[in-house]
């Protein structure tokens, strides 16, 4: 009898995990390795129900100074729940093959405190799942520092070209719209 009761919590945990997986928006399914860390970022666990800005970055791109503006947005809105995820990529041949160099540019040169991943593919058939879904909802990045604003439901509400600076009023309006979006509703 005791064995049967011990199995109930395990069964409930397994079922709740299944429910969580179905509640996770498609864009957040999967994980990505964190830049210069031994850990991976479970996208659903970390970002589900939160407004999110996803940006593909490159250390040696002329748009790299946008890291400063993105960090300013991070500081301005993180208290309201905004998350920013930087995804370095060499798809446009402007990222270091050495992740230590990428980390130096992000963290030391620009003072980035938002989450950065190890370099990933962001275009084409080899793109990471996150960018395949972002592209399916809008379009694939056309260059480095292409920005996506994702609401709490996991839907892209706006995307912006590399030319759009982080302090652009339209970009800020999209972030504020994502912040105001209703929370993710779980299904019973």
What does this structure look like?
The active site is at 61. Residues 1-21 form the signal peptide. This is Glutathione peroxidase. Keywords: Oxidoreductase, Peroxidase, Signal. By secondary structure, the chain is of the alpha/beta class. It has one domain (25-180): Glutaredoxin, CATH 3.40.30. 38% of the residues lie in helices and 15% in strands. The chain has helices spanning 2-23, 43-47, 66-77, 99-109, 129-137, 169-180; strands at residues 31-33, 40-42, 52-57, 83-88, 115-116, 147-150, 156-160. The longest helix has 22 residues, at 2-23. The protein is globular. It starts with a helix and ends in an 8-residue tail after the last helix.
CATH class: Alpha Beta
User: What's the SSE pattern?
Assistant: HEEHEHEHEHEEH
- What kind of oligomer do you see? single chain
Average pLDDT, to the nearest integer? 89
Unreliable stretches (pLDDT < 50, length at least 5) are 4-21
Strand order in space, largest sheet: 5-4-3-6-7
Largest sheet: 5 strands, mixed
Rounded radius of gyration (Å): 18 Å
Shape: globular
Range of strand content? 15-25%
Provide the descriptors you would attach to this structure in a database record.
188 residues, Glutaredoxin, 5-stranded mixed β-sheet, two-stranded antiparallel ribbon, 38% helix, peroxidase activity, Glutathione peroxidase
Short description:
Belongs to the glutathione peroxidase family. By secondary structure, the protein is of the alpha/beta class.
């Amino acid at each position: 009898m005791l064995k049967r009761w011990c199995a109930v919590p395990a069964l409930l945990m397994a079922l709740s995990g299944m429910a969580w997986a179905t509640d996770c928006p498609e864009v957040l399914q999967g994980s990505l390795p964190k830049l210069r860390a031994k850990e991976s970022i479970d996208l659903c666990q970390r970002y589900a129900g939160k407004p999110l800005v996803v940006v593909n970055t490159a250390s040696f791109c002329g748009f790299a100074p946008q890291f400063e503006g993105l960090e300013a947005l991070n500081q301005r809105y993180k208290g309201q729940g905004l998350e920013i995820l930087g995804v370095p990529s060499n798809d446009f041949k402007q990222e270091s093959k050495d992740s230590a160099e990428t980390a130096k540019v992000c963290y030391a040169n620009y003072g980035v405190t938002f989450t950065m991943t190890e370099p990933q593919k962001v275009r084409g058939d080899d793109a990471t799942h996150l960018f395949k879904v972002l592209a399916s909802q809008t379009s694939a990045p056309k260059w480095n520092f292409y920005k996506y604003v994702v609401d709490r439901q996991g839907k892209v509400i706006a995307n912006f070209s590399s030319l759009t600076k982080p302090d652009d009023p339209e970009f800020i309006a999209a972030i504020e719209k994502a912040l105001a979006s209703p929370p993710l509703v779980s299904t019973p």
